[in-house]
Amino acid sequence: MTRLALRNLFQSKARLVISIGGVALALMLMLSLDAIFAGVEERVVAYINHTGADLFVSQSGVRNLHMASSWMPASVAEQVADRPGVDEATPLLYHSNLVSVGDERSAAYIIGLPPDPAMGGPWSIAAGRTTPGPGEAILDEGIASTTGVGLGDEIRILGRTFEIAGLSEGTATQGGSVVFISQEDFSQLRPGPPVISFVLVRVRPGADVTTVAEDIEAEIGGVTVLSRPAFASEEQKVVRDMGNDIVAIMNIIGFMVGLMVMSLTVYTATLSRRAEYGMLKAVGARNGDLYQTVLTQSLVSVLVGLGIGLGFTLALAAVAPRLDVPLTLVVRPDSVLRVAAASLVIAAVSAILPIRQIRRLDPVMVFRGR
Fold first, then answer.
1. Under a CB-based contact definition with an 8 Å cutoff, are residues 270 and 366 in contact?
2. Is 199 helix (H, G, I), strand (E, B) or coil?
3. At residue 357, what are phi and psi to the nearest 5 degrees?
4. pLDDT by residue (tens digit) across 178-196?
5. Same-domain check for residues 315 and 167
6. Mean pLDDT on 46-64
7. How far apart are alpha carbons 81 and 87 in whole angstroms?
8. Structural contact between residues 182 and 116, judged by C-beta atoms closer than 8 angstroms
9. Is the pLDDT of residue 87 over 80?
10. Of 146, 206, 315, 360, which sees the most CB atoms within 10 A?
11. Phi/psi at 160 (nearest 5 deg)?
């Protein structure tokens, strides 16, 4: 029966190409969309993961950067630095706003750095300074290239003009970038008593991160302390919540396209071999054997389509970083398993109508030409 299924499948090359191509395209849509959003999640926490901090100390209740605001008295940094188990503590100022680069305006995480910061600065510099001085800014290299600016050019941040003193790498996301200025300049742009947004903490070797976090939160009022992985997870959760509906809708569309293509293909192939199925039933073939033939035909088509769709998605993920766009595709095993499960459902459902035709097939009627 497997041989019959394969023969039916390869009987019409054009139909085979159309069916496998349609399924591959539908499954590639599902895989690529998942990979794009996984890449967005990875890029959005790139700064957090590269700060070098073990703990993030923020205003009470603030658990991420995106669409968040954290302000604490500047004295909190000294209090944190004095706690047992703390090796280094770096205060940061932070604000999310638009920056004007050339003729373009883009969203950015604006980070105010102290002089010679132990943590929280750009982790890779393509050109220029590693730490901004007064009146200077460090901009992402990709953003600079896209907008046509470079070292020595000017950008506007929070209503003030800054000179581009450095170009960082890997600090751009689909939603914006990370821009670094000096803490002194940042403080001047925000009048009022001395404040900080976050304190990055590096724990001493041998100290327990959880114990140090609990001690800081208990002894210093009005703060929330999260480990770097927990802080990054909260940031990803915000992005995931924003994109879940889009991913779900597009996955449903991909699933329905694949299902319709396979259903039509298997149904047409079964009708074209109706006489052969009737003859097999006449000589004693059981319905179960014929059902297996249809299911095998459907399953092989879908699995080949899945392999092609996965191959194209992996190729796209490999090529994307070389393109001049802030796009990263991350193909996760759980995404592949989810799409593979959807493929099996497509194979099973698309075989229902042909199986019903075979079950109702009367060999006598077939031989009479009805």
1. no
2. strand
3. -65, -45
4. 999 999 999 888 777 889 9
5. no
6. 93
7. 7
8. no
9. yes
10. 146
11. -125, 150
The per-residue pLDDT for range 305-335, each reduced to its tens digit, is 888 889 988 988 888 777 766 677 888 888 8
Say whether pLDDT at 370 is over 60. Answer: no
Alpha helices by DSSP H, the chain: 2-9, 13-44, 46-49, 75-81, 141-147, 183-189, 209-219, 228-272, 274-282, 287-319, 333-350, 352-360, 363-367
So what's the pLDDT on residue 226? 95
| Residue 11 main-chain phi, psi, to 5 deg | -65, -45
Burial 58-71 (b: 16+ CB within 10 A, else e): bbeebbbbbebebb
Asked whether residue 310 is assigned to any structural domain, the reply reads: yes
Which tokens belong to 262? 């396979």
Q: Residue 275, SS3?
A: helix
Domain boundary (171, 187, 221) is at 221
Q: Tell me the residue range of the domain where 25 lies.
A: 2-44+242-367
Instruction: Please give the Cα distance from 161 to 179 (Å, whole number).
Output: 13
Which of 164-168, 264-268, 343-347 ranks highest by mean pLDDT?
164-168
Which one has a higher pLDDT value, 282 or 347? 347
